[in-house]
Write a structure and sequence with these properties.
By secondary structure, the chain is α/β, with parallel strands linked by helices. It contains 21 helices and 23 strands. The strands form six sheets. The chain has a seven-stranded mixed beta sheet with strand order 15-16-17-14-13-19-20, with helices on both faces. A six-stranded mixed beta sheet has the order 10-9-8-11-12-22, sandwiched between helices. The chain binds nicotinamide-adenine-dinucleotide. Nicotinamide-adenine-dinucleotide binds next to α11 and α12.
Length: 589
């Protein structure tokens, strides 16, 4: 299919004859699958000795009988992955496939088609056509869908958790956070969307004579490109306000995590959303990204800063609006008067949640001298006690990294720092005995500017600890970063903590918390300053960004300007009097 210059032209001409798509609604079906780990014997290079270092997951029922299991997760419910691929918006022609791996074991979990630029164009074309009718639906109808979705997500937690863990290699607790996030956003925007989108009366140009309304029109079709670290939250929670605002959404999830997005889509359709309002395309960002930029009326991107810069540049060329939720190198400041236990536990959780693969997690911890010698040993003790495993229950404190690439990056950051004089307090090594991409939770000190991890985002379970004397110095160090996503301040003096938080150049700042307080406050905007992004999610901003503000002003009685009864000179005088009155009479101006 030749690519038209814009799918809008193609849609206008071919509404009736759009290419046949493979995606169709499929009945939800769950497998009861026995998931087991079989230890793999691996030849150690260094010691020339056979050691058990890898594991193999068995997820296909027929394989289970072939090999004896050494460790078993038992029988688990997961969605039928093959059937989920029927939801992908691609042309009904053969496609190359890309495999999706289970990070816990490195084994293949499934495969999805590599969508082509033509598929993207077609998806946008369908979305544009559908949006014309979607925008006509009543807001109460849209609200009902998301309240049903809220319940469906809670009802299907078990298989969502299983799939999230298998596909992203995360601990169950981290997977649970994603589910809560989607549920909270479904409820929040379902309940508030009507109020946020309602036309608002504004002061008119001339009191009594100009009736002015501010409206919010949907932008049309929103493109969402999302990363792998929170593959449910960062695909669905951003889509909810876009859809409620009357837009259609075309989503490209990360290559590593398409199945959870597809299962979330299936539950959305079950909640009553027409399938073409929310379409999912799988494949390579670099290949299909440019068509997203050409077709979308708005781009919501979450991912690395380098990709964000590239895409924001392309959005700028087309003058489409975008939001960019990008990387961070988040600082925490622990003051002498902090509650030791709370601060240690908070920093511990806020640094190693999702194995440190969390945009708002802490990578730099500045500790004041007076508490340093109590804080650091206690944090080291807690980190040493962490349970790192592939457990598919709530027993693990930390799961795996997502991939070999991510493991290589984390290893390189740690090795580079150690080579240049960093002091290792705990951790520091990969753990292939647990799974191929596991890495120990790591604390280091004596970090210097020439080390890669001093300024660059590691996006792994690695935290640098710095000692400071003076609070001003800590604020300066915290702000001496190209990033500005999230920060945290620990003190018993809450007012002082808030004052410090206000001076930190980050989109969110938490006092006596690391990330959950700000992230969980969905009524308030969340996003990055500096190289951490553009635009905000959550709150009123998180839905109005998907709309075009439009002013409709209606004039009565007289035109504004000179007219037959008001020659230019009298008009100028009358206006001067009116302007003075508008300033003098409260409420008029
Ligand atoms: P990434 O930028 O490599 O990829 C993100 C998405 O962009 C993926 O879907 C990928 O396929 C796609 N992509 C890549 N190149 C593209 C291109 N040229 N055109 C179009 N799409 C393209 O990031 P990642 O490694 O998946 O995610 C990790 C990064 O995301 C970290 O830096 C992290 O801090 C950041 N992140 C930020 C937030 C936030 O809310 N600020 C949340 C989560 C992750």
């Amino acid at each position: 299919m030749p690519i038209a210059t814009s799918s809008l032209d193609a849609c206008e001409d071919q509404d009736e004859n759009l290419p046949r798509r493979a995606n169709k609604l499929v009945e939800r079906r769950l497998y009861e699958v026995k998931i087991e780990f079989i230890p793999v014997i691996w030849q150690s290079n260094r010691r020339k000795k056979e050691t058990i270092v890898g594991t193999t997951a068995l997820i296909s029922p027929e394989k289970i009988n072939d090999v004896p299991a050494k460790h078993s997760w038992g029988t688990r419910k997961i969605p039928d992955l093959a059937r989920l691929t029927a939801l992908i918006s691609h042309a009904d022609t053969p496609h190359d496939l890309t495999t999706v791996r289970a990070p816990f074991t490195g084994e293949t979990l499934g495969a999805v088609p590599i969508c082509t630029p033509e598929d993207v164009q077609m998806a946008f074309c369908h979305a544009r056509t559908t949006q014309r009718s979607w925008v006509q639906t009543r807001i109460s109808e849209r609200k009902a869908i998301f309240l049903r979705y809220h319940d469906l997500i809670l009802q299907h937690q078990e298989e969502l958790l299983n799939l999230l863990q298998l596909e992203a290699g995360k601990s169950r607790l981290s997977a649970q956070d994603e589910i809560f996030d989607v549920v909270i956003n479904s409820r929040y925007y379902a309940v508030r969307a009507g109020r946020y989108l309602r036309p608002q009366r504004r002061k008119g140009a001339l009191p009594l004579l100009t009736h002015t309304m501010e409206l919010h029109q949907p932008v049309g079709v929103v493109g969402i490109i999302s990363p792998w670290n929170y593959p449910l939250t960062l695909t669905i929670s951003d889509a909810i306000p876009a859809i409620l605002a009357g837009n259609c959404v075309v989503l490209k999830p990360a290559e590593e995590t398409p199945f959870i997005a597809l299962y979330a889509a299936q539950l959305l359709f079950e909640a009553g959303l027409p399938p073409e309002v929310f379409q999912v395309l799988t494949g390579k960002g670099r290949v299909i990204g440019p068509v997203f930029l050409k077709e979308a009326n708005y781009l919501c991107f979450t991912g690395g800063t380098a990709t964000g810069r590239l895409l924001a540049g392309q959005a700028g060329e087309r003058l489409i609006k975008c939001s960019m939720e990008l990387g961070g190198k988040n600082p925490a400041i622990v003051l002498n008067d902090a509650d030791l236990n709370k601060a240690v536990t908070g920093i511990w959780h806020g640094s190693f949640a999702n194995s440190g693969q969390l945009c708002v997690h802490m990578e730099r911890v500045y500790v004041q001298s007076g508490i340093y010698d109590r804080f650091v040993p206690e944090l080291v003790r807690q980190v040493k006690e962490m349970k790192v495993s592939a457990a598919m229950d709530f027993s693990a404190d930390m799961g795996s990294l997502i991939s070999q690439d991510q493991l290589d990056k984390v290893t390189q950051h740690v090795e580079d720092a150690l080579k240049k004089g960093a002091i290792l307090l705990t951790g520091g090594k990969a753990r292939p005995d647990i799974g191929p991409f596991f890495f120990e939770p790591t604390l280091m000190t004596n970090i210097k500017p020439d080390m890669t991890l001093y300024a660059q985002e590691t996006f792994g379970p690695v935290v640098s600890i710095y000692r400071f004397e003076d609070v001003e110095q800590a604020i300066q160090l915290a702000n001496a970063s190209s990033y500005g996503l999230n920060s945290s301040v620990w003190t018993r003096d809450v007012r002082r903590g808030q004052q410090i938080a206000r001076q930190l150049q980050t989109g969110t700042s938490n006092v006596n918390e690391t990330l959950n307080a700000a992230w969980g406050s969905v009524d308030s905007p969340m996003g990055g300053m500096k190289a951490s992004g553009l635009g905000r999610r959550h709150g009123k901003e998180g839905i109005l960004k998907y709309t075009e503000a439009q002013t409709v002003a209606t004039q009565s009685l007289m035109l504004i300007g000179p007219n037959r009864f008001l020659p230019p000179e009298r008009y100028a005088k009358t206006m001067t009097v009116m302007l003075k009155l508008m300033k003098a009479i409260p409420g008029l101006g």
